[in-house]
Every structure is written in C-alpha cells, then in structure tokens.
Amino acid sequence: MTLDDLKTTCSPTWCPGCGNMTIWAAFKTAVVKEGWDNTNTALVAGIGCHGHITSFTKLTSLESLHGRALPVACGLKLYRPDLNVFVFMGDGDCFGEGGNHFIHSARRNHNITAILHNNGLYALTTGQTSPLSPHGFKTKSTPAGNPDEPINPLALAITAGATFVARVYAGNIPMLTQTIIEANNHQGFSFIEVLQPCVTFNKEFTHQFFQENTYQLPTSYDPMDKLLAYEKSHEFGLKQIPVGVFYNISTPTPEKKSSLKPGTEINHQAQNLPDLSHLFDSYS
Amino acid sequence: MSSNRHPVVDGIFSIKIGGEAGQGIKSVGLMLAKYAMRTGLNVYDYIEYPSLIRGGHNIMQVNISAEPVTGAYQKCDLLVALNQDTITKHYQELTDGAGLIFDADKKYDLAKVNKNIALYPVPLAKLAKDADGAELLSNTVALGAVVGLLGGDLNGLIDLLSESFGHKSDELQKSNIKALQLGYDYATQNFVKAMKPILTSSETTASVVPQILVNGNEACALGAISGGLDFAAIYPMSPISGILAVLAANQEKYGYIYKQPEDEISAINTAIGAAFGGARTLTATSGGGFCLMTESYGLAGMTETPIVIIDGMRGGPATGLPTWSEQGDLRMVLHAHQGDFPRIVLAPGDPKETFELTMQALNLAEIYQTPVVILLDKNICDNDQNFAQFDTSGYQINRGKLFNKVDPYYKRYQLEPDGISPRAFAGSGNFFVANSDEHDEYGLSTEEIAMRVSQVTKRLTKQETCLKNHTQGPQLYGPKEAELTLIAWGGTKGPILQALKELPTVNFLHVTWLNPFPASQLATALKKSKKVLNIENNYTAQLAGLIKEHTGIELTDNLLKYDGRPFFVDELVAEINRRLA
User: Fold this and answer.
1) Residue B432 touches chain A, beta carbons under 8 Å
2) Which residues of B touch A73 (CB under 8 A)?
3) Average pLDDT over residues B54-78
4) Largest CB tally within 10 Å, which of A3, A239, B386, B404?
C-alpha cells in the first residue's frame, strides 16, 4: 500500500497551513506503515473541520453527527473487535456536544483510538469559543474575552479512565505518526490530544507558538504513575507545554475476542435461527 | 356470583391484589396468573403502580377465564387487601357476591363495604410470622388463601413457588412454602363452601397446546432473539426496562451483545455503529428517551443504517406519568427529526404481535436500510397474557441487499429504481463513507444539485417500495357487516377484542402499520362502514388525524382517554352500547 492508495476523488478543503493537513498526513503515514486497509480498519468522525478527513481518506468511515462519533465507534468496536477503529473529533464536537460520551467511553475503556483535533475554538462556524478555549480568549461569541475556564482534556481523560493518554503538536508528523501507531497497539481507550493551529481564526495558538513552547516529556518520566500523569496534565504555559505519552496502563476492555455467533460469518445472508425452546420454557 | 350479566362476562373472574409498593403485590399476582394458566385457564393480568419503590398504592388485577381474555376490567370478583387503602380505593368495584380477603387482626374500616360482599378475614400477618417469616410474607399467605378459597391445589402452587425461588436461599424458600400452606389451610378449613371452584383444572383451549405467560417486554426481547439480534444498546426507562432485563440475562447463551450505554443518545449511536459493522441491532426507550434519540434517528435515515427502535409509550409530556400508559407518541415518531427520510412505524396490539413484529422489524430494517420504530405502550409492556407457545417456523432472516464482493468501484449509495442500494459493512474491503452529510453514490460529501435531488429521491423511494411490498392494511375483527365499526391502533386492541364478545353487531379495524400508511386499504374499509368510532389513548386523536391526512375521511366520533389508564372492557362496552342505543 502507498499513500496514493488512500486518495479519494475529493481534495482537502482545509485552509492552507491548517493543522488538519499534518494530522491527515501523519495518519496516512501510519496507515501505510501498518497496512491498515478496508478489511481491517474503519474510521468514525464527528462534525467540524476535522470531520472532513473521512472524505479525503480512502478508508471506510462513518461521518456521524456533531459530538456523536464516540458512541458510534464504541458500538462498531463492540461488534467488530477485529477492526482497528479510529475516531476523529473536534474540541467543540467532543467536549461540548459530546462531553458525556467522552467520559463514559474512557470509563468503559473501549479499545479504540480517539484523536482530538484541538484548535481551541469552533472553526467551521467561523470562530466561536469552545469548551477548550482559554479563559479570556476573544472570539465572535466572546468579544470581551471567554469568561469561562476551559476543560483540561488530558486531566479529564485520565480521571475518566482512559488508559493511554498522549499529547502531540500537529506539526510534528513523525511523532504524531508514531503516537497513533502506539495508541492503536494499546489495548484500551487511547486518547491523543493534537495541538492543532487554526490559521484562520486562532491567532494565539499558532504553529510558531506550539513550536516554541512545547517540550518532550523526558525518558525518565513514568507514564504508569496516574497521579504524576494528572499533575503533568496541568502544566501549560510559555515553554511549558509537555508533549508525549502522559499515561499508559493496561486494564481490561469490554470487547470480546469475537462477537460473532458461533458458525456465522459477517456478510452472510443465511443464518440459523436460534433454538428458543429452553427460553420459552421459563414462561410456561 | 351475580346472575343477570352476559355469560361471557360471567366467565371472567377478576381478582385484585392491592397493597403498598414493596409488599410483593406483583410477585404474588404473577404467580397466581401462572398458576391459573397451568390449570388450563386463560389469564390476562393488569398492573398499576406508582413511580416509586416503597409506599404508594400498587394493584395487580388477574383476570381468569375458560375463554381467551385480553383486557382488564373495572369490576372485581375477589379483592385481596394487604392494607386499608386497597379497601378504601376499590370497594366500589366489587360485584354483588364478590369476596374480600383481608387481615383479620388489622382493624380495617369495612363500614362502606356492601352487605352482599362475602368477607374472608385471614390472620395474614400472624400466619406470616408463624411461617418463621416476618410480616413481609403476608402476600404469600394471601396467595395461599386465594388458591384455597378458589378450589386450587396446593402442590401445584408449591411447585410454582419453588421454581421462582430457584436461586434464593433454602431458608427463604422454606418459610415461603410454609406461608403458602398456612394461608391455604386457613382458607380451606374456615371458608369451606365459600366461593366458586374457579381454579380447578379444566379442559379448555388453553389446556391443549403448551402455553406461555408473557408480557410485551418479554415478547419483544424473545422476538429480537428469535429474529437474529446481534446487538442491543438500551438505557433503562419505564416501561421498557423489562426488555433489557431479558436481553441482558440471555446474551451469553444466544451469542448477541447487550450493552447499557450512558444515555439514549449513546444507545442509538452505539447501535448505529454496530449496524455499520454488520450487526442486526435494536434499541428501546420511552417517549422521553426517543426525544434524545431523535437526532440519530435521522442519522440512521441519512446513512441508510438499519436499526429497530422500540418506543414503549407512557403518559407525556416531560416526565409525565412514568408508570402509566398513553398512545401519545404516534405523531412524534412519524415526524421527529429535520428533513425527509423513510421510516417504518409499526404498532403491535398485544405481546404475540409484539413478538412477531419485532422479528419482522429486524428484517424490514435491513431490507429498507432505514430505521423501524415499534410503538408499544405501558399496558402491552407490563401486562401478562397467555398464548400458545410462539411459533417461529415461518420466519426466515432476511438481511436485504447485501454486497458480498470486493469492488474498488463499489457504490454504497448507488441509485436504484427501488431506492435500495447494495449494502456492505465496515471491514468488507469496500470503501464507502456512511455520511451524515449529503453524499454521492460512494458516500463522499457533495452539495451538487443533481446528486442531492437523486439521493433524496432514492431514500424516499424506499418508502414507496415498502408501501407496495410490505405495508399491511388494517385487520378486521368481528362480522363483515356491522352497525358500528371501531377503529384503533396498537395496544387498545386487547380490551376492544374483549368488548367485542359482548357486541355482536360491532366490528373492529385494527391498524398495525402506521408508516408507510395503508391509505387505500383503510379508505376502502372505512367506506364500507355504516358508522365509525375511533378509539385512542390520547387527547388529539392522532390516528384520526392521520386518516384524514391520507384519505380525506374525517372521523367525527372519537373515544379518547388520556388519564394513563387503559380502556377497561366494561367501560368500553358501556360507551359503545350508548352509541348503539
């Protein structure tokens, strides 16, 4: 498989320089590297600029509703544990409309990889504040500055029960590629916060800002220490934005090895009807 | 018993057991119903309970007859009062010569109870304590007394009780059996010639074929399992929680998945995700939960993802009457969600139809690749009725147009004359986008005029195809020629059929297909009718409106009830007779 195999008839409609471009590039690189294709992989996306990725990537996908990508992905993975399931979601999408799903998908530790395109605002609706916009942030909906405090997505993920939690800057394609592969290999709910510049509406979180202010978690950092991970997730400031794998532990996932009924195959028309006589007996 | 009523009604013996929530009204009521069924009788039980776990007033009515019985009565032939409230609230329902079982040692006020009522004081609490139990076993003592009083056999009752205690401690089982025995002995020794021997074994239609006693929730779950269910996600809500109880308990054995999601929004989306992967899926809720699902009801319509949604209706709006019944959601499920998309809406009238239509719905959803809604109501969901064990031999799983090849040019939303495109699943090797945005034949987003028009038309053509190939017209019950024709949908069927037995000049059209709407069949049937009475459990006569919309026929006589209670058979007979007079 090559990158060309992933082309669809649609060309990207993101703004030049948009962080989505490099997220897309990193994802496709991982796809080619790992041999993910339409027999073993499916994508689910929410609604927002990020969601357009499904139209530009030739992998079977379900473009769901705003905020609802996670429950769709959880259902898919429960029934099809054989598939690599990737979820693309926006910060407004996942933490505004879909906040409840995020908490519970993480809590149940579904074996899926959720990638947050965090550009800190609503871009497709032309720039309003999101639940992840910083306090004081000026947007069309908060002309006097965002009066609210943002959600800390990493801290929330760790608290809710995600078992692989990472942060990567969108412009670092090799690191993001590697993190996506690691997240997919992880058995359990994997959450990657991608710091994604929105070149059109977010003048604070620019490529330059992230390039100057992120630093890699040191090799001595222990990602199995939950309290440390929680503490680290609160570090955010000039020259003080850690990137890397914050948390990585192994706990059971709700998916079985195979969800198929014995003797059945996906895509087969004929199925034997179950024998219900024993069940009927309990009502006699 | 009274002498001058119609023989069929005389043939119904109605027992009411009342007390507080927590006194075990439902468990003994259900045991009594099952006991009666096992003696070869027909039963229909009806439960009233408030939305709380302790206190309040609970009542379970068990209607017993040699003939099939399909509805609840207001009248009562034997009242079992586990508290004063039961007497105060129900003494007026007692028929002449009816009986009243109550605790002999509690100083209940019986002043208002008619002199023609036979009093059967039983020291319920004392006997419960004698059975090494606490007063809590009063219900079991009362059950023993009822069966004793009605000429039943203690051994059969003990067997039944033992079965139901299968997983509980021996001590508890022993004290329950003792309580049954003490109640039974007390009744047989003290009231030896007191009442009719209703519960003696009898040769009836129900005694020939193996019978099951099920309510609509159970029948729905059984239908889903029979119909090849692969995946269900259901958030608990009255009155459909019984569905998930059966599905959750049997998933390992039958190989499907049940998952409790965080809310109804997640329930429907989880089901859509599983269906995207190839599962036959179902979710269930009540009206309030359906409101949350509305958003993804349309997602299923747009992405052409098969899904069955059960809406067990209760009194609305908002929290409304959580544990009572209504038929208020018809217009909601017909119109919910923005824009136009095809939907199939079915409304079974009893547990047997619920079983059959749930199986059929799983097929219809996959044949038409669109959501199918089954409207139940609290009465169907909760009330048990006996049926000959359900027969599934005529049923075959139909997964619709599946695409079983791998094709680089596969078109998930290929334009087809019948509107139905070939369906592949995620992981099949075929690329497509199941897209909530308008899309082209591959599923890729498009806003181009011609494709938008073609895709909308394609989706809605499926509804036309369904109307031609599957929609069923109304079912006619009773004589072909009638002075009065009743029309109703869904769960009012039971009490109407029961009333019909007393109304030889009346027939009844029962509608189970609400969308695509069987307009021509209905118009034909209604034009033949001399006089029509529309019967619904809602304020706005939602079916009548639909009939007018689709056929131009205006039904002017509507019998509407929206107090949360079902139509009682005796109430219906009186209403209809008034119109015949």
Assistant:
1) yes
2) 273
3) 92
4) B386
Kindly report the CATH class assigned to B475-580.
alpha beta
Matching residue, tokens 């009333």: B499
Cβ-defined contact of B230 to A261 (cutoff 8 Å): yes
pLDDT band at B6 (very low <50, low <70, confident <90, very high): very low
Cα dihedral angle (A62, A66, A69, A75), rounded to 10 degrees?
A: -90
The residue behind tokens 């009986």 is B99
- Collapse the DSSP code of B517 into the 3-class scheme (helix H, G, I; strand E, B; otherwise coil) and give the result: coil
- Tell me, which fold does domain B213-388 have in CATH? Rossmann fold (3.40.50)
pLDDT digits (tens, 9 = 90+) for B12-23: 999 999 999 889
Backbone angles phi, psi at B475, to 5 degrees: -95, 130
- Tell me whether A124 touches chain B (CB under 8 Å): no
What are the chain B neighbours of A80 within 8 Å (beta carbons)?
274, 277-278, 426-427
Task: Say if CB B267 and CB B293 are below 8 A apart.
Answer: yes
pTM passes above 0.90 = yes
Tokens 């001595």 found at: A220
CB A70 within 8 A of CB A87: yes
Q: What is the pLDDT of residues B221-266, one digit of tens each?
A: 999 999 999 999 999 999 999 999 999 999 999 999 999 999 999 9
Please provide the DSSP assignment of B333-400 as one string.
Answer: HHH-SSS----EEE--SSHHHHHHHHHHHHHHHHHHTSEEEEEEEHHHHH--EEEEPP--TT------
CATH number of B7-207: 3.40.920.10
Cβ of A273 within 8 Å of Cβ of B397? The answer is yes
SS3 B168: coil
Inter-chain CB proximity B295 and A68 less than 8 Å:
yes
- Cβ A65–B436 below 8 Å, yes or no? yes
pLDDT digits (tens, 9 = 90+) for B402-414: 999 999 999 999 9
Domains B7-207 and B475-580 share a fold: no
**Residue whose C-alpha is closest to residue B139's, from B20, B220, B270:** B20
Q: Under an 8 A CB cutoff, do B261 and A44 touch?
A: no
Q: How far apart are CA A3 and CA A25, in angstroms?
A: 9
Q: How many CB atoms lie within 10 A of CB B574?
A: 12
Cis peptide before A81 (omega within 30 of 0): no
Return mean pLDDT, chain B: 94
Percent of chain B with pLDDT over 70: 96
Who among B257, B389, B426 is closest to A83 (CB)? Answer: B426
Nearest CB partner across the interface for B397, out of A103, A271, A283: A271
Q: Which of residues 444-463 of B touch A (CB under 8 A)?
A: 444-445
Give the residue among A170, A184, A124 at the shortest CA–CA distance from A24: A170
Place of tokens 């999101």: A130
Residue of chain A with shortest Cα separation from B444: A55
Rounded-to-integer distance, Cα B369 and Cα B391, Å: 26
What's the pLDDT tens digit per position in B157-216? 999 999 887 766 788 899 999 999 999 999 999 997 666 788 887 666 666 789 999 999
Whether A71 sits inside 8 A of B261 (CB atoms) is: yes
Whole-angstrom distance, CA of residue B190 vs CA of residue A226: 71
Q: Does B165 touch chain A (CB under 8 A)?
A: no
> Given CB atoms, is B255 within the 8 Å cutoff of chain A?
yes
* CATH class of the domain whose range is A3-281: alpha beta
Residue among A42, A63, A280 minimizing CB distance to B427: A42
CB contact under 8 A, B278 and A10: no
Residues of B with Cβ-Cβ distance to A96 under 8 angstroms: none
Q: In this predicted structure, what is the pLDDT of residue B9? A: 40
| Closest residue in chain B to residue A254, using alpha carbons only | B259
> Would the CB atoms of B445 and A280 count as touching at under 8 Å?
no
Q: Where are the domains of chain B?
A: 7-207, 213-388, 401-470, 475-580
